[in-house]
Write a structure and sequence with these properties.
Elements (H helix, E strand, L loop, with lengths): L28 H36 L4 E9 L20 H12 L1 H11 L16 H6 L3 H5 L8 H15 L1 E4 L5 E8 L2 H58 L4 E2 L2 E2 H34 L9 H10 L2 H24 L4 H92 L5 E5 L12 H26 L6 H8 L3 E6 L33 H4 L4 H17 L6 E6 L6 H14 L4 E5 L6 H6 L7 H5 L5 H4 L1 E3 L4 E4 L10 H5 L2 H13 L2 E5 L18 E7 L5 H10 L1 H5 L1 E9 L1 H4 L4 H6 L2 H5 L6
Parallel strand pairs: 7-14, 8-12, 8-13, 9-11, 9-12, 13-14
Antiparallel strand pairs: 1-3, 1-6, 2-3, 4-5, 10-11
Helix pairs in contact: 1-12, 3-6, 3-7, 7-11, 8-11, 10-11, 15-16
Length: 773
Amino acid sequence: MLQIYKSSSVQGGEGEAAPSFLRAAEPSLAEQFAAVIGFIRRQFLVVLAFIPLTIGLAAAYLFTTPPVYLGRATMIFIDTGKAQTFQQSILGFDPINAVMVDTQIEIMRSENFALSIVKDLNLTHDPEFVVPGGICTAINLLFHPTWLSCLFKSTEPKSESDFTRRAVDTFEKRLKVNRVGMTDAVEITFPSGNPERAAQLTNAVADEFITHQLEAKYQTIGQATAWLQDRLNELLAQASAADRAVVEYKTKNNIVDTGGRLINEQQLSELNTALVKARADSVEAKARLDRLSQILRNDDLDPASKELAAVTDSLKSDIISKLRGQYLELAQRVALYLPRLGNEHLAVVNLRNQMREIRHSIVDQMRQIAEAYKSDYDIAKAREDSLEGSMAASVAGSQMTNRAQIELRQLESAAKSYRTLYDSFQQHYMDSVQQQSFPMSEARIITRASPPLYKNSPKSFLVLGVAVFGGLVLGLGLAILREIADRVFRTSSQVEAKLKTVCLALVPAIKPSAKAKSLGIKAATKIGAPRIIAANAGLPWYVVNSPLSRFAESIRAVKVGADVTNAAKPNRVIGITSSLPNEGKSTISASLALLSAHAGARVILVDCDLRNPSLSRDLVPIAAPGLIDVLTESASLNEVIWSVPSTKLSFLPAGAKPHLIHTNEILASDAVRRLFDLLRESYDYVIVDLSPIAPVVDVRSTGHFVDSYVFVVEWGKTTIGVVEHALTSARGVYENLLGVVLNKVNLKQMISYDRHRSNYYYNSHYGKYGYTE
């Protein structure tokens, strides 16, 4: 991580804030989408390369793996699964519960159940279940959870029990029984390499389960029937003994009952009823007698009174009623004659005498009735007294009988309990006998297995789909790893984000021409000889030979960056350096110098890479005197400077002094500073080709004569860590850094990293302004 941060803008004066468009910002949705598209374009072939590989593996698996067919049957449970020995209706179905269904499923998965099917179908010598010689079949490999151990088995079964054990183990592992959702149905599946065999084995499981349940229920019912028979005999003996005890106790205590009631209880009830009636009759007779006696005590009895009329009606005596009628008739006649004849008239007197006689007759008749009432009352009273005596004697006898009935009831209750229990067990015994003759299965098959039309595995489309998906995942994973491991500079935004400086230009990669060697260089082995550099087809001359190319435009961007910054800070001396050798710093130096000179500026190009003066070897390979000679005062400046007539460019080579050791001391000397002060006064631009930062320390000694630095980074090759380390170690370079140039950019690949930057260099855009490539 770069630890040095510049305080001023690259394109502004010292302390000036960077423009808003150069500040770090959160990527927008469009930028994120463009980043994803770029990642796909960059890594498309890597991701795509894994798909044919995984498809080939899947195809090999499909061709080498034998097909497996799956038999499938469905069974439903119709009762609780218990032996219905004590049920009221032998045909009734009880509700199913989840626990019972799971219990039945575990029965089908049990070892004993598998053993019964293996024996019934004679699977102990079936190659599909017992593999001789330890060679596992494809079915076992696919469905056996420990199939890896199966690959290494080499012992053959030694006995019949070993064959049986292997067959049962294989059968258990391959049989699958599962509940269908939340229903009472279960699904039975069994795999096999043959469709008919798969259906046969599946149906065998279903049929064996039903048979197993019928046999289990038959045995359970048979055991229950035998137990009920023994229990019935015991209960019959106990009930008979209890009945005999009741009869003997009644005989001993003279207890006789009629219709379920004892005789003394019946007599007591009858006496009580008669006594109640006798008391009622006595009370009624006395009431009539008292009422009649009260009327007779009245001497002035008036037969016409309402009281006598009410008594007459209650007595229901025809004589009294007749006499009273006569009396009333005479009373009416007296009432009729009295106003006309008077009270003393003989007719009135005779009528009154007749009325008096009739009254006496009524009274005599009532007295006779009163005597009869009195006789009835005496009879009723005597009967009441007699019944009360009989009742008292009966109650005394009943108390003795009740004390005996206490024990009698206990005996009768015991006898009744034994009899009820016996009847209940007898009913259960009859039910169990009927069930034994007609046992019911706890389940029935609703769908029998038929030979499957299609294989269950391997599923071709699924395997191919998984292969394609796996290839995409593997390719995407490798692509992500490559993307993470790609720690090089690819875009200008990376430069700005990582190095906190501006990217001056993206210089496209140019293929060197076959005419790259210098042409027409004048011999200058001696001081004072002509020093002319002729243009050629080499890379440094590309900006002159193709001024309307993208390469030339990129170099112009570097010059513009220097010119804009020069407005606030003099940038006459510009040093070109890089992290490592061969990143193109010398080419950028020569191109920038040639382009500036071609534009009419006074420019001198100085080769200060004293350890490896590659620029001097490229431009003037035969030049002997140079910068070292000027510094040592072996030659004057004018005697070692070369020129390019076509552009008026001046070039100061390093000088032919090989194997220099303390080059940093040379560059840090006052002589170098004085030389560059002289060059600064004589030229508009002094372009200095410096050594790389990482291999040597020379660049760190150039801060006293270089105004600004241009840092060259090879696109897609120089790692971010190397550049950060180089700039961190050279603080003076970073603090005076003009910007970074991404060199040797592959514009075709650039589109997948920075689409808008690659579009910036499209020929179609340049063609509108006369540019040609």
